[in-house]
Every structure is written in structure tokens, then in C-alpha cells.
Amino acid sequence: MRAVDVIAEEVRDAEPRDIPKRLCGVVVELLPVVGASVALHNDGMPVRLSASSEHASYLAEIQATLGDGPCLYAARTGTPVLASDLTSGEDADRWPFFAQQATAAGVRAVYSLPLGNDSVCVGTLDLYRDTPGELTPRELRTALLVAGVMTVALMALPRGEENGSRGAEPWLSGLAAEHDEVYQAVGMIMAQLGVGAEEALARLRAHAFARNRMAVDVAHDVVAHRTRFERD
Fold first, then answer.
1. Class of the 3-156 domain?
2. What pTM, to 2 d.p., does this model score?
3. Is 175-223 assigned to CATH 1.10.10?
């Protein structure tokens, strides 16, 4: 069956909010990858929307916590980033901290595809492979096809009362709380340290990395007043 038929069959009759997770699953079936995740990007902080597995979710959170990795570069440039070997060579040198964490988690290659159009990137589709290697031209076309469908699906998610959809579930409901909590924590760190937003986010990430935790978990503790940042 052609890739387009597999994708169409998987998303047929699906609710718009269920499509990202289904597409993460179908791309794992179609390509030589062991996991996939989709993240939205805002002000440099990826926020995981869905993943094919807990393992893929963990890998997405690594990039968000480190502020380092193929997905952040793909979001900044709006172009695919194909890191085909994180064990050695230029890919490992380009993202040393992420490469170390990813290989420790059993991943040897990551392919990050931007979601959006020529003028704006709203997120990335990230594919994880347990062996080094490049995607063939046909495999890359399939990955880009899934990324295109993913972009359309994200734009189709209900946006509450916008466009007359009164009573609909808010756009990205369930994710927004986590996203807002990170930025609420950044605001609290800004006030505690007297620094700007960029440095506050860097401090949040550094605190998480030093304690082998995820940035979203530290943010939760900051908002709950269990963690406080002190001026040097």
C-alpha cells in the first residue's frame, strides 16, 4: 500500500485532536525509525504535543530541557535537519550534550522536520532511529508527506469560540496548561533573580540538567513554590 493510502486510512474518522498521535504512530510503521514525536515551538522552548511512545516522549523532553538538538535548529531555520549519526562525526560535535543523552537512551539518529510554511514554523516532527543511517530519497518524501499532513491537522484543531465554534474544546487543551506553566515559572525566576526572560529560561534549563530532571518538572516545582532561585 502506498504511504499516502496508509496515512489516509489511519486518520480516517479521527477527531482532529487525535490526529497528531496517530500520525506519530503511522510514521513509525512507514519508516525505519523507532519513535516519533511532535512539538510546538514558541520563543525557543519546544512543547511536546504528542509522541508514539513514552521513549519518544522522553527524547522530545531531552531537547526541550537542554535547549539543544536538531529540533531547535529545524524550528529556527524552517528547514529539515537530518542528523544521521549521533555517535561520531559532525552531528555528534554539533549537539554534544543532546548526542550524549540521546545515545544513552538508545538513539543513534534523529530527523527533525519543520511544521508550517515558508514564512512561519509552528513546530517540528521528530523521528528517532536506533541505528546510524540516512533516509533514502523515498523515505524522506514519506516523512515530509507526514509532516505536511501534521501541519494541516494542527491548523484544524478546534480553537474554542473562534470562528463560531462555541462549546468546542479549546485549541490544544491539556497541552496549554503545561506550556503556560513553563512560562509562568520563567516569569517567577525573572522576578527572583532580576534577569531577563532568556536568562531565566537558561537558568531553568541548567537547573534541570544539573539534577537530571526535565525542564517541565522543574517549572512545576517553581510554580508550586517548592523550588526557588536565589541570586548569586
1. alpha beta
2. 0.80
3. yes
